[in-house]
Amino acid sequence: MGDFTRIAVVSNCKTLQCCVEGIDGPNILILEYSREGGYKPISSFINPAVKAVRKRGKAAAFTIVKYNVNAVIVSDIGPGAFEVFKARKVKVYVVSEGTKVEEAVQYLISGKISEATKPTHERGHGRLRNLSKHLR
Q1: Domain of residue 59, CATH code
Q2: What is the pLDDT of residues 82-117, one digit of tens each?
Q3: 17, 18, 35, 101: which could join 13 in a potential S-S bond, CB 3.0 to 4.6 Å?
Q4: Closest of 99, 97, 101 to residue 121, by C-alpha
Q5: In 1-136, where does DSSP find H-type helix?
């Protein structure tokens, strides 16, 4: 797996049986990885970025980096959050939406997923995509 000691996963609830979500998903799990190959949740909390009107992904990224993670697993990520992680040398991994947290972490540990080289979408998304272009 590399030199990871802490992994952040954005999910739809606060357990390992939840599904991975995009960077602005409702919950964030922080996991600690041991060199013996095990991992355990050390923190889970509501993503404060869910209340943000703009730049939710970037707000989530700034929250996540405070936990000194080495890697983050998401189902999608925009350029703002991607840039925050890259600037702090946090590796980003993208899995399909609906992938269970436990399964995604196993993919990472076993090397079955590669580090993302670019964001999955452009700035803004959903019903606010057109509005966000005018606010920049």
Answers
A1: 3.30.420.130
A2: 999 999 999 999 999 999 999 999 999 999 999 999
A3: 18
A4: 97
A5: 56-65, 79-87, 101-110, 129-135
